[in-house]
């Protein structure tokens, strides 16, 4: 049976299962969510009002046996940035959705009363149910309860208290193979789900499978693709140390934003580094290597146990550790892991929330380095929706406005992540020009600037950085459409067999004949679709700028400032 | 001696007194502040950072004997709206500044440490002093103390705790002839003054006088002008009931925004009306008629006493009474007067703050109608900078973002004042297109739509409203440059002797030959200068829109929605 569009209207609680319009057929993941949002959401609507829509889509290869193809995308107009937004995550939902035969789930409208609901999907079936029991609960309780109601094989998409309270830092949680949490992290999509009064979505694919047009060709291509992935040295480092291998590397480069972006190196970097974390995990009987979804061959995730050897958190990323660590000057991994777990449960983006804490520390709300107070605020204030909790839960920009702070590291109101753009300039181009606010994953120039993947670029020089960011942003938009993890990009940039075999898999899946050029064009089309939405929402090239403080405050150790002119940045869109 | 530019640099604490550049010579008041801000402030700078400047300017006729010429303008990039901003007020400062020979006071830079300062001006002299004693104090304590240090004749410009904490609703206070407070209310200019660490500015003009080129012609023109003012029926109504005469009128028109803009009429309107207030003031031995500055012949201000006959507040405006009254569903004038007094002391815009309370009530932070809790929050939370106090003190938009509310009545993040744009459409055009966010005083179409001054327009019809708003916005920009109170506009629209005599006074003051055409051109030039600044700051025509809820929620009693298209609104700038 051909894949369908599943549509849910929360105003009148109606549902429909529709044929896929021809113009959406070639899209998946981010390409599809952005295409649908651009087609159906009025760009100037209020993100939390009835005219916004929340769209979920598995990638083109999700649900197949293709390595690393288990990413699910969600899209909407973002309540954090006001731009179009796509966020993606691992877990089990992409594969379930694809096997259900759901090319995209579109949730529109808004209940007129205060009732809460859940949605469940099966092949050919959508059910909306009232939900009372889980309202006010965290994501872990939701997953546990939903598994009891259905089965432990059920896919779960949920929001915690953050999403219920429509906080702009709220993420959407995706159950992973161990019934833990992965996050559609950025842009506040959890608030959009909360505005539609949906506590969780249960996905039951039963025994359904994805159809492959040419199974033999698919299998052969997947073999080549998988070898390219596992052979790349960055894949191997990620498998050993996780993304947190970057703490020491970025600190060495002088680009580890510290103490709310007032320094480029953190004295306590060794205590929170990937190497230290690896040894601690091994010592406590955790897993240093772990996949966030079935079929992952890189396995950058991990199981982090507490000092007694009990599970504490999993999939703790470099960016989360940096944000709660260096940016808030906290050098205690156990405290960071505890906070990571709490934020997973409340359902808040670790980057946005921790950077918001950094700004709150700058404002004197709490002291830099006071992780006990951070934990108290998370559990006593944010989870309970106190005024301070709301201020922080609505992100770094909101804290800055509320406390009259000028050193607020955001672009389009989204917190800047773990790489200082003064010392690593290419990533600053990505922050500035991304269609979705500051986001390193939109065009990860760190690969080339710092890791030497796909060529070399001097992080302290402006030369070639706009082009580098542009090429990576185009490629990323395409990769984000396949259901592939972004970390295939390291192999794709260095191994000439990687990208062709990925394209071969897409062709074998659908019985089509995409070329490498088609894929590049897809990436460009997605960026332009997103950019056009933002323009129609009122954004201009003047929004493609970093905050003023990066231009007027040099950062140690290089004493570098952000020195791109607006004109230079604006050449990004020359394609 | 020719008027000079007084300049203060707060980064290095240097001062200078400079000749007026030729291109600034013909400007005063708003025309001058906007011209200087546009010339010297980078449009994309952070409003609270060192690159913003705060400019004060008396009007062209301030300091003379011209009736109603005592308005002072302040300008900067607004921390509330991000646009260029001008606010003006009565009191004694315009006259003092003009007599000191200060055409404009420009305050730039920002101290590098946490010290606070005061500035004092005399003819030919600027002094910067460290200030410790008054930091943390409200405006009434500041005025009392500064008068003791200097004399009770001193002019005082100050900020309360709101400005110190750089709240975006913070205003700048101007001492009036009775040592009470007038406010440069909107746009958060108090936060800019706070960011420059200036607690107060003392103005000592001694015996200095403004020079008049042709005293006889001036005197004759002023006589004609004054007669036009005092003869107009609206001037007379304003003198009897104050601006609060409007409560019953606007309620009758179905345009009195009630319960956070969810209704167009307020059940308790009679209890808070101008008629009720007039009787109460008389009964308690207050003054129903009172001028906010020497030379005012309209006298729309009043002295409001408490039930024991002691002074409570003065100059309580219709918009303040509406905001704390109908919008928060409070029908008790004594409670409203108490809040007006508290906000004067803390130094917060009554419109922005009360509309923020309305949104907070919508969010469930406190109940609609709970004035005791409002007073508690003002004194215990806002004045002390608690998280909730900061949330509300940063305005209605900030409350909306922090609590995920969609019914947030703001344009360019500034609270919409006391006239519902669905039921009184012309004023909606002004809210949408004003260069400074929602502000009724920028183009007061109520005059024509509701009061029948300067012609007639059906408030429920779109016809002619864009043109009406445009003409009034152009005229207002010119009037705001003269030092005249906006309320001369009623006479100017209906009495053919009013405007020529005003122009005659300007010509007699400076020995020049302005025509009516020149004045219209001045208004247009000011609007275009302000608009160009905003465009360079990143604003587009898509910012000239009302919030979505006005389009999708009809308001009682007319069940009207906001139905202007974007294209219709954009014709405003066709001049």
Polypeptide structure, described:
Chains A, B: GO terms for molecular function: 4 iron, 4 sulfur cluster binding; electron transfer activity; metal ion binding; oxidoreductase activity, acting on the aldehyde or oxo group of donors, iron-sulfur protein as acceptor. Chains A, B: InterPro entries: Ald_Fedxn_OxRdtase_dom2, Ald_Fedxn_OxRdtase_dom3, Ald_Fedxn_OxRdtase_N, Ald_Fedxn_OxRdtase_N_sf, OxRdtase_Ald_Fedxn_C, Tungsten_al_ferr_oxy-like_C, W-dependent_AOR. Chains A, B: Belongs to the AOR/FOR family. Chains A, B: Keywords: 4Fe-4S, Iron, Iron-sulfur, Metal-binding, Oxidoreductase. 2 copies of one chain form a homodimer. Chain A has about 575 residues and is of the alpha+beta class. Chain A has a domain at about 5-205: Aldehyde ferredoxin oxidoreductase, N-terminal domain (Aldehyde Ferredoxin Oxidoreductase,  A, domain 1, 4-Layer Sandwich), CATH 3.60.9.10. Chain A contains 23 helices and 17 strands. The first copy, chain A, has helices at about 30-40, 95-100, 140-150, 160-165, 190-195, 215-230, 235-240, 245-250, 275-285, 320-325, 335-345, 350-360, 370-380, 385-395, 395-405, 425-435, 445-450, 465-480, 490-495, 500-510, 515-535, 550, 565-570, and strands at about 5-10, 15-20, 55-60, 70-75, 85-90, 100-110, 115-120, 125-130, 155-160, 170-175, 180-185, 200-205, 285-290, 300-305, 310-315, 410, 415. A 6-stranded mixed beta sheet of chain A has the order 2-1-6-3-4-5. In chain A, helix 6 runs antiparallel to helix 20 (about 500-510) and helix 16 packs across helix 18. The radius of gyration of chain A is 22 Å and the shape is globular. The mean pLDDT of chain A is about 95. At the A-B interface, helix 5, helix 14 and helix 15 of A face helix 5, helix 14 and helix 15 of B.
């Amino acid at each position: 049976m051909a894949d369908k569009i599943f549509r849910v209207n929360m105003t009148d609680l109606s549902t429909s299962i529709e044929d896929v319009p021809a113009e959406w057929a070639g899209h998946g993941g981010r390409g599809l969510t952005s295409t649908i949002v651009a087609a159906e959401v009025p760009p100037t609507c209020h993100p939390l009002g009835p005219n916004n829509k929340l769209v979920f889509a598995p990638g083109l290869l999700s649900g197949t046996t293709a390595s690393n193809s288990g990413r699910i995308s969600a899209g909407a107009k973002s309540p954090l940035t006001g731009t179009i937004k796509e966020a993606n995550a691992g877990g089990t939902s992409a594969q379930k959705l694809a096997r259900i035969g759901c090319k995209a789930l579109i949730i529109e409208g808004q209940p007129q009363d205060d009732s809460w609901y859940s949605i469940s999907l099966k092949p050919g079936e959508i059910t909306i149910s009232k939900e009372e029991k889980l309202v006010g609960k965290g994501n872990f309780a939701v997953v546990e309860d939903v598994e009891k109601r259905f089965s432990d094989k059920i896919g779960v998409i949920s929001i915690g208290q953050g999403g219920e309270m429509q906080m702009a830092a709220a993420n959407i949680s995706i159950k992973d193979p161990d019934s833990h949490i992965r996050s559609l992290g950025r842009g506040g999509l959890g608030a959009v789900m909360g505005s539609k009064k949906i506590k969780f979505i249960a996905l039951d694919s039963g025994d359904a499978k994805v159809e492959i047009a040419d199974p033999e060709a698919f299998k052969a291509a997947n073999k080549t693709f998988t070898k390219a992935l596992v052979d790349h040295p960055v894949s191997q480092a990620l498998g050993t140390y996780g993304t947190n291998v970057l703490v020491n590397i970025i600190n060495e480069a002088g680009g580890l934003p510290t103490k709310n972006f007032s320094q480029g190196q953190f004295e306590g970097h060794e205590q929170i580094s990937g190497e230290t974390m690896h040894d601690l995990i091994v010592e406590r009987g955790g897993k240093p290597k772990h996949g966030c979804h079935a079929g992952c061959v890189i396995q950058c995730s991990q199981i982090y146990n507490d000092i007694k050897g009990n599970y504490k958190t999993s999939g703790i990323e470099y960016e989360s550790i940096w944000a709660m660590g260096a940016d808030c000057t906290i050098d205690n991994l156990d405290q960071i892991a505890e906070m990571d777990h709490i934020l997973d449960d409340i359902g808040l983006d670790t980057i946005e929330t921790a950077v918001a804490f950094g700004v709150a520390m700058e404002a004197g709300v709490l002291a830099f380095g006071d992780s006990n107070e951070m934990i108290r605020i998370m559990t006593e204030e944010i989870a309970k929706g106190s005024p301070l909790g709301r201020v922080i839960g609505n992100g770094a920009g909101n804290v800055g406005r509320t406390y009259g702070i000028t050193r607020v590291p955001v672009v389009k109101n989204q917190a800047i992540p773990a790489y200082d753009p003064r010392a690593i300039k290419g990533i600053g181009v990505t922050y500035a020009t991304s269609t979705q606010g500051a986001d390193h994953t939109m065009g990860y120039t760190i690969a080339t600037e710092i890791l030497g993947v796909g060529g070399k670029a001097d992080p302290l020089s402006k030369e070639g950085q706009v082009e580098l960011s542009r090429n990576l942003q185009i490629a990323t938009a395409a990769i984000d459409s396949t259901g592939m993890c972004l970390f295939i990009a390291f192999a794709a940039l260095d191994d000439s067999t990687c990208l062709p075999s990925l394209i071969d898999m897409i062709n074998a899946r659908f019985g089509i004949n995409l070329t490498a050029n088609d894929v590049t064009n897809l990436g460009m089309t997605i960026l332009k679709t997103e950019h056009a939405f933002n323009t129609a929402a009122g954004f201009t090239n003047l929004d493609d700028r970093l905050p003023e403080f990066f231009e007027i405050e040099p950062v140690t150790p290089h004493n570098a400032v952000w020195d791109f002119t607006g004109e230079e940045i604006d050449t990004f869109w020359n394609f």
